[in-house]
Amino acid sequence: MNKLLKLFAVSAALAVLCTSVSGCGQHEIEEPPVTSDITVPEAPPITTLPEITTEAATTTEPVPVEPDPLEKYQEYYETNNDFVGWIRIDGITHSNGDPWIDYPVVQGDDNEYYIDKNFEGKSSKKGCIYADFKVPITGLDMADNVTLYGHSNKDGSFFRHVLDYMSLDTVEDAYIINFDTRWEEAQYVVVSCFLTGIYESQDDIPLFEYFKCRNLDTIEDYNYFYDNIMLRNYYTTGVECEFGDQFLTLSTCAYVFSDSRFVVVARKLREGEDPAQYAGTYAKNPDRHMPKKAR
Question: Which pLDDT value is given to residue 61?
Answer without folding.
Answer: 78
